[in-house]
Amino acid sequence: MARDVANVWWAMFGFSVVVLLAVSVLWIYAMLRRPQTHSAEEAKRINRRWVIGGGIVLPTVSIIALLAFGIPTGRSMLPLPVEGEQPLRVQVIGHQWWWEVRYPESGVVTANQFILPVDRPVDVEVTSADVIHSFWVPRLGGKLDMVPGRTNTLRLQAAQTGVFRGQCSEFCGSQHAHMILHVEALEADAFASWIEARTGREHQPPGGAAGQVFDERCGQCHRVAGVSDGNRAPDLSDLATRPTLGAGVIANDAEGLRRWLSDHQSIKHGIAMPRHDDIPEETLGQLADWLETLAP
C-alpha cells in the first residue's frame, strides 16, 4: 500500500513536470515571437481555442488521470468487505506521548509496539485519549488522524517481514518527536506464537520493598497481568520483550531500565510519570530486576 501511495506521488510529480515544461516553453515562445496582427474574427477564434483547450480540456484530462491513479490506491486502504480470511482488527490509541496497542480478538494488550502478520489485511482502528495524534507507518501506508472521541480505520498489509518505524505525524506537544512506534511484520506462524505467548499469562508480584513501591505507586497506573489493573499508563505485562523504553527514547536493556526509573523526567520531560527521588536506589534496582522478568 505504501508502494501504491508512492506511485501516485511520482505520477503526480511527473505530470506536474510536464505541465511546468509546457508552460515554460509557451512563456518563452510568447516573449520571443514577433508581434502579429490578427483580425477580430481570428483573435476571437484563437482566444476560444485557448479557453477550450487550456481551460476545459487540459484540466479535465488532468483530473481524470489523477483519479485513475488515486481512486484504486485510496480504495485499497478502506476497510471494505473481503472474501476468505478476514482482516485482523488492531486498536491503536494515542496518548501523550506513547502508543497503546490492543488486539480485541485475543485480548492481548501491549504498548509502543505494533506486531502484525505478513500477507494478511490488518484493519487499524485509531483514536486518541487526549489530543489529536496521527498514526503513520511510512513503509506500510498513508497516515490517519487520531481524534479524541472518534475512531478512524486504516487498512494495511505487509508484503514481507521486517521492522519498520511508526511515528506520530500530528504535533501533539513537547515530546511529539519522541512518540515512536516499533512496528514488526512476522510470518503467520510467528505472529500466532507471539499472540499465544501473551494470552492468559500472569506474573508474580515483586517481593520486599520493591513490591510495596509497585503496589502503592506503579500499579495505580500500570497494568501487569496478575499483579495490577492500572489503566492510565502503558501496560507492562510484556515489557522485557520491547526494544525501547519511553516510546523509542532509550534502549530497553538493564542499564536503560535503571536510567528510566531514576531519571525518566529528564530523559522525556513532561510525561505524567512522577519522579522517584524519594525511593532508594537499591529499591529501584530491585524493581528494575523484576521488570526485566516481565516476558511471556
UniProtKB/TrEMBL annotation:
Residues of the Cytochrome c domain: 205-295
Tagged with keyword Electron transport: yes
**Database matches in SUPFAM superfamilies:** Cupredoxins, Cytochrome c
Keyword annotations for this protein? Copper, Electron transport, Heme, Iron, Membrane, Metal-binding, Respiratory chain, Transmembrane, Transmembrane helix, Transport
Q: Report how it sits in the membrane.
A: Multi-pass membrane protein
| Family named by the database record | Belongs to the cytochrome c oxidase subunit 2 family.
Which purpose does this protein serve, as stated in its record? Subunits I and II form the functional core of the enzyme complex. Electrons originating in cytochrome c are transferred via heme a and Cu(A) to the binuclear center formed by heme a3 and Cu(B).
Report what the protein is called: Cytochrome aa3 subunit 2
Origin species, per record, is Stutzerimonas frequens
For this protein's source organism, the top of the classification is: Bacteria, Pseudomonadati, Pseudomonadota, Gammaproteobacteria, Pseudomonadales
| Gene that encodes the chain | coxB
